[in-house]
Specification:
Layout: H1 2-22, H2 24-31, E1 76-81, H3 85-101, E2 107-112, H4 116-126, E3 135-138, H5 140-148, H6 156-160, H7 168-171, H8 176-180, E4 183-184, E5 187-188, E6 191-203, H9 204-209, H10 219-235, E7 247-248, H11 253-262, H12 273-278, H13 280-294, E8 298-299, H14 307-311, E9 317-321, H15 322-334, E10 341-344, E11 356-364, H16 369-382, H17 385-395, H18 402-405, H19 409-413
Parallel strand pairs: 1-2, 1-3, 7-8
Antiparallel strand pairs: 3-11, 4-5, 6-9, 6-10, 6-11
């Protein structure tokens, strides 16, 4: 059994090495959103469910955006993104609304790029062609690299523009950490689109039956509870669930970084993958994860999806992101499972737990004045609070502003997490 656990741990360590080596730039960028989310003070904006761009008098070009707006008519721009499912469907609806309603005659089409990595690759490939993709929804660390290489533009002049920019009151409703992650050396490389949180899902009902009245707040409490769940499954009459019950080993880079972040007092941020691997926080995190595996309190599942295991009490807690919760809700409801579950931060030993966050942002490629302005006008419309709220509801994520969050009251009331 120890040999099996050692092999499991070696695979986990190897996957972290690969994750940090390939995605090394992710570490410092993600650390910007790893602390508790806060927002800058500002009023809450209101909006309708379906925004309408109203006809105005012939617009006058701005001094800081030197393009005659009449030249925008018939401009085609393309947006590439990683969304699928309901988020993809909602984005398509929004694009259709913009195409039908915008007064400039701009036409937007979208490209479903696949995963974040595949989306980034397709965008990068287009940079060396005569038909660059105009807009992208991607993790901000990619935008930082492209901006440094001169492939994307600084959005600051557009944001501050008095006619077509983002009003100060609306800008102040963006979560400060999300906004900061889209600035690099004074350059606005992007605008936050969505925030995702990396959390644990915990079976409260089963934990109570195991004798635990409180959810684990510290790492020792978490170890105690998942070990008791594993012991219970090993000693019951069902041999099919032997070896289960504890935390399902998850080697995703964000999950591993969530664990590492717990052992850092000031947030985990390094300047290279090599330093990340050698960091004290990494060693401490892996010592803890090794203890989980060697004690049989963490196990590798055969199926990637943890939902069935959770519903059948083969794991007391598993790692998840916000979009996972929508699928879990549906599965528990379909199976008529009455177990009560809740969302927890990764167990920290400090008095205030923080949650590791990542997100998607919008960026604009460097093309010409007309295409860049057309891209901005669509991006500005897409980031209106009511449109942000619709995308967040469809994706199961957090919108980047308190203004859009205020429009999601019905959605929030219908979900128990």
């Amino acid at each position: 059994m120890n040999r099996i656990h050692n092999l499991q741990f070696q695979r986990l360590a190897f996957r972290l090495l690969i994750a940090l080596t390939i995605g090394g730039t992710i570490i410092s960028a993600c650390s910007n959103t790893s602390s508790s989310l806060t927002q800058t003070p500002g009023p809450t904006l209101t909006g309708t469910t379906k925004p309408v761009i109203t006809q105005t008098a012939a617009p006058i070009p701005s001094a800081t955006i030197p393009v005659e707006l009449s030249k925008l008519k018939g401009t085609d721009i393309r947006l590439i993104h990683p969304w699928s499912g309901e988020a993809f469907t909602t984005l398509r609806r929004l694009i259709a609304e913009f195409n039908n309603e915008n007064i400039w005659g701009i036409r937007v089409t979208d490209i479903q790029g696949g995963s974040v990595t595949e989306t980034a690759r397709a965008f990068t490939d287009s940079m060396v062609t005569s038909e660059r993709i105009n807009l992208i929804a991607i993790s901000p660390e990619y935008l930082a690299g492209w901006n440094s290489g001169g492939f994307t533009i600084d959005l600051s002049p557009y944001i501050s523009n008095t006619e077509w920019g983002i009003p100060i009151k609306e800008k102040s409703t963006y979560f400060s950490e999300g906004w900061k992650s889209n600035r690099m050396d004074g350059v606005q490389i992007g605008i936050p689109a969505q925030i995702n949180l990396h959390i644990l899902v915990y079976n409260r009902t089963w934990a109570n039956e195991l004798g635990f009245t409180e959810a684990p707040r510290t790492r020792d409490e978490f170890l105690t509870q998942v070990c008791e769940a594993a012991r219970t499954n090993n000693q019951d009459s069902d041999r099919e669930n032997d070896g289960t019950g504890g935390w399902i080993i998850n080697s995703g880079s964000s999950t591993l970084l969530s664990w590492i972040h717990l052992f850092s007092e000031k947030g985990f941020a390094v300047d290279s993958p090599e330093n990340a691997i050698r960091a004290d926080e990494t060693g401490e995190a892996f010592t803890y994860l090794r203890e989980l595996t060697e004690k049989g309190c963490a196990w590798s599942s055969r199926v990637a999806s943890p939902f069935t295991y959770f519903a059948t009490r083969q794991t007391l807690a598993f790692s998840a992101t916000l979009p996972d919760l929508l699928e879990l809700e549906q599965m528990m409801k379909f199976g008529e499972n009455t177990d009560k579950w809740e969302v927890l931060p990764y167990p920290d030993n400090s008095s205030e737990s923080t949650i590791f966050g990542t997100g998607l942002s919008y960026g604009i490629s460097k093309t010409d004045d007309i295409q860049e302005l057309a891209s901005w006008l669509f991006l500005r419309w897409l980031t209106l609070p009511q449109n942000q709220a619709r995308m967040a509801e469809a994706a199961g994520t957090i919108p980047p502003t308190t203004a859009s969050g205020a429009l999601m009251g019905t959605y929030g009331a219908s979900h128990n997490w």
